[in-house]
Design goal:
This protein is α+β, with helices and mostly antiparallel strands. The chain is about 45% helix and about 20% strand.
């Protein structure tokens, strides 16, 4: 329902500066308070396969020079360059009654979104398009979605892939198995992509410590029994780690195992007597290093989270059932208050579980770039705490916090540790970003060869 509106003359605003505007609403009471910053948009482009920035030697050298280690402090927001070749798809789902589809492809990086043309009446379309993006956060995820164009209705979903930028192997043409909307399992068809990403590692590291860019368009959270149960199980597993640790410590006090309790007692006396503050980051550093050597030696005991994977698949089936039930009954739409509370609980469980999983995945080297960054940070903290008295560190921190709003009134307050952890994928995201292996028997080109044979 239309309420009111107002207009902003952007030509009167200076660039690269935050303006606080209080605008009177034209057709209603009250006013609107906005913070507006005019800045250059991310460089995005679309072209044919014949026009390729990285194949032009001169352009490639310019791009490499632009993101070289020597240009660390030149435009800190410009972290890297991404080129995506959308070549073709094979064996897509038939969305029309004729047994064909009218597929087109949408390529998204954060809030940048580009589309290919539509190939009509074809299950094996060739697009041969090149997309380029400026990378503002190397921890972003590239999303490529295939839709079926429908002039009378909204486009039908055919398949999707989500590719973290840090997992990309430059210059390699790969067949990605298309997944369902929840990215939990395969759907029909594969898409062929060739992706290149060039970035400045120092800029990328600094960008990790500031808040993530929020998507302008996000799907509204829905109430799901399966999702609620999954989030509860995930949180329970995180809490049980702490509970089991508490039980283990308590068993040492109870002398359930005398040798273990004696060893714990001696360790306690040694650590407390020699404790210094710098030992806290040092212990975390040693834990990260220990896990790294376990991984490279092949003794890594990490296992795929089959529980989360199974729950994701069940959730997809549950959502399909819920959709059918809602069409028949629709009673849940009448109890908005209960639904809102349940969605809030569902989201809180997800946040708590994700927080614990992100900490675990940092130490498990799920994203090596982030684990190496944690090692560098812990080394710095260990040295700082060893050489600088704690009161000076607290003094600098307090002065920074108290004067931050005075120095930059519109700055968004943030916590660098939480911003870092927000880049580490949770167990659910690890499953969603996992590549599926293509089935060679599903390729139409293979079938043609077999028929000719």
């Amino acid at each position: 329902t239309f309420v009111s509106r107002c207009q902003v003359d952007l030509s009167a605003l200076s660039r690269e500066q935050t303006h606080k505007l209080e605008l009177q609403l034209e057709e209603g009471e009250g006013h609107l308070v906005l913070l507006v910053t005019l800045t250059a948009s991310a460089t995005v482009s679309i072209s044919d396969l014949s026009v390729n920035s990285l194949e032009d030697q001169k352009e490639r050298e310019e791009i490499l020079k632009r993101y070289s280690p020597l240009r660390i402090f030149h435009n800190l927001k410009d972290v890297g360059f991404l080129q995506v070749k959308v070549i073709r798809a094979e064996g897509l789902m038939a969305a029309d009654v004729t047994g064909k589809s009218d597929p087109f492809c949408v390529v998204e990086l954060n809030n940048d979104r580009l589309l290919t043309h539509t190939v009509y009446k074809n299950l094996n379309p060739e697009w041969n398009k090149v997309f380029t993006f400026n990378v503002k956060d190397i921890h972003s995820v590239l999303e490529v979605t295939v839709y079926d164009e429908d002039r009378d209705r909204s486009a039908d979903f055919l398949g999707k892939v989500a590719i973290p930028l840090l997992s990309i192997q430059n210059g390699e043409q790969k067949a990605y198995v298309l997944k369902n909307k929840q990215l939990t399992g395969p759907t029909k068809g594969v898409i062929y992509l060739e992706i290149d990403v060039i970035f400045n590692a120092v800029k990328a590291s600094l960008r990790t410590l500031i808040p993530k860019e929020q998507k302008y368009i996000e799907e509204e959270n829905r109430l799901s029994k399966q999702l609620l149960l999954r989030n509860f199980i995930r949180m329970k597993r995180c809490v049980m780690v702490l509970v089991n640790a508490a039980y283990y410590v308590n068993s040492c006090f109870d002398w359930d195992s005398p040798p273990r309790s004696l060893a714990a007692f001696v360790l306690f006396l040694f650590v407390v007597w020699n404790f210094e503050l710098y030992m806290i980051p040092l212990v975390l550093l040693l834990l990260l290093t220990w896990n790294y050597f376990l991984i490279i030696s092949g003794k890594d005991n990490r296992q795929r989270d089959t529980v989360v994977e199974d729950m994701l698949e069940d959730e997809e089936e549950e959502e399909d059932k819920d959709d059918k039930d809602s069409e028949k009954k629709g009673f849940i739409n009448k109890i908005y208050a209960i639904q809102e509370v349940c969605v809030s609980v569902q989201n809180i469980l997800d946040e708590v579980a994700s927080f614990g999983e992100r900490i675990k995945n940092t130490f498990n080297w799920t994203v090596p770039f982030l684990s190496w960054l944690a090692i560098v940070a812990l080394c710095m903290f260990t040295v700082i705490l060893y050489f600088i008295p704690l009161r000076y560190i607290v003094l600098v921190w307090g002065i920074n916090k108290f004067t931050k709003k005075l120095r930059s009134p519109y700055a968004i307050d943030n916590n660098e540790l939480l911003d870092f952890l927000s880049r580490v994928p949770s167990d659910v995201q690890v499953v969603q970003y996992q590549e599926l292996k293509p089935d060679p028997s599903h390729s139409p080109y293979k079938k043609k060869k077999n028929n000719l044979g």
